[in-house]
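Predict structure. Chain length: 515.
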Amino acid sequence: MLALGLVAGLSLATAACSSSTSSDGTGQGGSPAVARTAYTFSEVQIPVFDSPTFKGGYQPWMQLMYDTMIHETPAGAEPGLATAWTFPDDKTVELTLREGVKFQDGTPFNAAAVKFSWDRVMASTTMLKGASLKSMTAVEAPADNKVIVRLNAPYAYDWKNYLLRGSIYLSVVSPTAAQKAGDGFSANPVGAGAGPYGFASYTKGQKVTLTASPNYWDPQTIGLSGVEFVNTAGGAPTLAGLKSGSLDVAFANGGANINAAKAQGLKIANTVVRPDWNYGGYFCGSKTPFNNVAARRAVLYALNRDAFVSGPYGGYAKVNPTTIPTTSPDFPGDTVPNPYAYDVAKAKAALAAAGVAPGTTITALADPTDLNAATLQVLQSQLDAVGLKLEITPSANAFADIRTKQPDIYFQGSGFPYASQGIFFEPNGVANYCNFDNPDLTRSLAAALDTSITADQQKQRWADFQRIYYDVVPGFNLADIEQATITTSAVSGVPADKDPSSGLAQAWAGISMKK
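Prediction complete.
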């Protein structure tokens, strides 16, 4: 998992290759440099290389291994492995596949391979699935380049804006590779993807190694001989690796890490506000004190968001009390004003109205990252000022532990697409750990996810949703976090407006290095 708040880095090393390397770092004849480029993250929680085995955690190598149907760019959606996508209704997904594509093992990429792969996802009884993925009931392949997905619930919008733009949940694997490897495939999917870099090896607890694919459909975008995801502690250890040259690229959010990198003379290649990255939390609404909406509203009144931006985020964030990123065309802006401006007196009055005594202890669960810890310290101080004592429990995998530990607040300090936020509050949502249920909120989200309406209508429906969200308060949001890409001088081609930490092929296109 890419741990938020900790610097994540890349390391380079020589990779086996038949071509020789010139003194300027490129192969003879202009081929990519013979280098291993490592993408470093602070903790490997549950390494997954095959969608049906996914049980949580962020797996950025999956995007590079398998590519995605839709490429998300700052200019909007662009063709990836699919060249066209339509949604005849909110329960049907139709894809036109890119022709002439081959998997890394040379097997043709086609509709039969998509059906083979997504049938495996449907058949998995151990995979962690949200409602939109669970809604898939059939995959049809009427032609080599045509795929139709049938859903039993209206989640086509979520497929359009989330599932088809990633490959963690919907990787398409080479049927040949899967059948050849048998039961060992999921742990060793060599040759299985259609992305720019293929799986080579995993050294337990240390690194995931990928090598450049010889068959990628857009070969000119590959500037590296490989990518290594190296398990490196964030903060000082990663910065030390960058300074020594054992690491080449790092990713960081939070002012402390970014400013420390600047102070050490490292290059900040870009800073990007991710469209799916908003720090905030969710309440356990089925037990005291947060089964009372007044108590939930009290927390919102207690939040001084400017203190988070100027403190742990070091200015690399934008205040945002909504569930919709400021970078999204659906962001409501001033059309839906925040009804909970920072007001300690109102927070105390709301707690009194809810019957919550001063000094009441509440619990919070979060992943153990530097930025989470710094954020929760500020939250702890602000809640203490209104009479709530916050006990913070770090968890190696908070997302997996929330149902058993039932914290009063689950602090979701990571990126999550706003179109999929229903998993936290819809009935049977995979992260609805305290069985929150508000039919108006659920209906409003479904209306906003309607694929048949215009962009203006969609924006209005998201505004309507946000008004209801403010009213029923299943959770709270703090700010949109900026992600920085930090590199050594050897690395070039980092896009100014894309986030390579996502692992998405389009964000890595053109990145190269000299060594």
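Summary: The first strand starts at residue 8 and ends at 10.
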